[in-house]
Task: inverse folding
């Protein structure tokens, strides 16, 4: 188990000290390493001031997206849950805030050189949109995993100003290629998260929320990829709304910020589940991790028996189920990692109940409020005001069948089995009569009769009416002469099926 790393000095959240010139990086900084390295030691107060500056730059440029009360999640939690609808930005995600903040501060000479970025799909749209608006030429590098819908949107939004380059199988591979090309071409790199200009642009979401609500929310829930949105929002809230509890949500299959916080430095994950493509990042940023440490995530003591971080084991929680508030009632930032299937269930609820089209990363934050195992459910107090960022809505329609499948499996309603049938007539009827329950449905059946053997295996997929019906089905299978073997969800065969 990992211990929390040593605390680094934290800026008092409500300090009256103004940021100094040394705090703030040059607002026109445009080298490719740019403000990021210089600002690693920057105070949260300085970052918050730059968020205010970004808000000025974005005024009249980005859409002031709606903050909508959500009946479903409010009912579920007993809290007042509000959705910040960043999926309704012109590029259908908050990503243009950071891209435009950075690009609008470039000098005429830098604009002339053009820009370059790597993107899983949404940042590229923010860059493309800003290129068209500012009259800058740009190249967007995306990996082959970027859905077609996002590639098309990048081309449409950037028009003649944008060249799309598809390279590598992961975001990180595309980022490497973009950095190499930037060094060769002299184009200005526009980082997706690890740059002060980018993350302070993203931080304007929190500022806008407090303005729209007219007061500080009790809790703000934000999705996490490389950490730009959470650190920009977190820095601003820590100064202007220290009573707000900040919650970051990572996908379990790509929890790079949690792993980096555990280690005390950015760690490259050996593998990532790319399903939540907007937030499937292999390595948190240097700057974003340093800021996350300042925000106090590393100080978090979780609810597990040991009272410490529970380690980098996928769906483990860094949650505040027991005591989200520290001494003197001061909220502690919380980081959670939640399973991809939980995100799928939330995508479907957003679609079917609320009429909101969210992409997987867009549904990440609201998914944390779903009722489920304690470790992956964010507990909020009844009556609290909870703001949840729906960060993006660029969902490719062809993904919904996978979303449905993953959701059913997550909810315990869909299971796969290998069933060994004796090679004689009437066996299937026997299986249906003796083992299947009245509300269970066969959704997959693959069988090839092998006449020279005594038994023949069939692959059977069953959708249960209720997840609790599984125990009865397995008991009936045990009592029957037909051999029924569940296919474990963590097996290679299961992964092949789904
Ligand atoms: C829709 C959406 N949500 C969340 C994220 C994660 O953002 P960050 O890298 O700022 O943590 C991204 C990143 O691209 C995204 O596109």
Result:
């Amino acid at each position: 188990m990992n211990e929390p790393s040593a605390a680094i000095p934290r800026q008092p959240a409500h300090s009256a000290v103004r940021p100094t010139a040394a705090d703030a990086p040059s607002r026109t900084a445009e080298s490719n390493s740019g403000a990021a390295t210089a600002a690693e030691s920057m105070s949260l107060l300085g970052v918050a001031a730059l968020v205010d500056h970004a808000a000025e730059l974005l005024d009249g440029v980005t859409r002031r997206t709606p903050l909508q009360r959500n009946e479903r999640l409010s009912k579920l939690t007993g809290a007042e849950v509000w959705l910040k609808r960043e999926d309704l930005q012109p590029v259908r995600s908050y990503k243009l805030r950071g891209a435009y903040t950075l690009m609008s501060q470039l000098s005429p000479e830098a604009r002339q050189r053009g820009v370059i970025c790597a993107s899983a799909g949404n940042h590229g749209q923010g860059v493309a949109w800003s290129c068209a608006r500012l009259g800058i030429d740009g190249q967007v590098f995306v990996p082959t995993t970027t859905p077609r819908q996002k590639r098309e949107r990048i081309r449409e939004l950037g028009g003649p100003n944008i060249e799309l380059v598809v390279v590598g199988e992961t975001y990180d591979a595309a980022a490497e290629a973009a950095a190499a090309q930037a060094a060769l071409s002299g184009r200005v790199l526009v980082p997706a998260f690890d740059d002060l200009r980018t993350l302070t642009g993203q931080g304007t979401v929190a500022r806008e929320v407090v303005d729209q609500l007219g007061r500080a929310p009790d809790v703000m829930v934000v999705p996490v990829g490389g950490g730009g949105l959470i650190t920009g929002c977190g820095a601003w809230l820590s100064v202007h709304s220290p009573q707000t509890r900040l919650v970051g949500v990572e996908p379990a299959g790509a929890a790079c910020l949690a792993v980096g916080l555990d280690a005390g430095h950015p760690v490259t994950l050996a593998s990532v589940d790319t399903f939540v493509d907007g937030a499937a990042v292999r390595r948190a940023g240097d700057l974003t991790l340093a800021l996350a440490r300042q925000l106090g995530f590393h100080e978090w003591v979780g609810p597990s028996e040991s009272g410490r971080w529970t380690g980098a084991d996928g769906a483990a929680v860094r949650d505040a189920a027991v005591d989200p508030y520290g001494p003197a009632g001061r909220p502690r930032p919380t980081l959670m990692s939640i399973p991809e299937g939980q995100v799928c269930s939330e995508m479907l609820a957003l679609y079917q109940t609320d009429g909101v089209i969210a992409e997987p990363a867009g549904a990440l934050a609201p998914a944390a409020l779903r009722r489920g195992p304690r470790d992956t459910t964010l507990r909020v107090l009844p009556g609290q005001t909870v703001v949840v960022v729906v960060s993006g809505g660029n969902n490719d329609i062809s993904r919904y069948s996978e979303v449905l499948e993953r959701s059913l499996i997550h909810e315990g309603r869909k299971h796969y089995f290998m069933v060994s049938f004796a090679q004689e007539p009437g066996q299937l009827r026997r299986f249906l009569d003796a083992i299947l329950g009245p509300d269970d449905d066969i959704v997959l059946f693959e069988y090839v009769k092998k006449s020279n053997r005594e038994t023949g295996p069939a692959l059977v997929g069953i959708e249960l009416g209720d997840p609790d019906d599984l125990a009865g089905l397995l008991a009936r299978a045990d009592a029957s002469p037909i051999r029924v073997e569940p296919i474990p969800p963590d097996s290679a065969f299961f992964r092949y099926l789904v």
About this structure: The chain has three domains: 34-93+201-404, 95-189, 413-497. The longest helix spans residues 44-58. The chain has 19 helices and 15 strands. The pocket of pyridoxal-5'-phosphate is lined by residues 93, 95, 120, 122-123, 192-193, 202, 223-230, 278-279, 359, 361-362, 391-392 (CB under 6 Å).
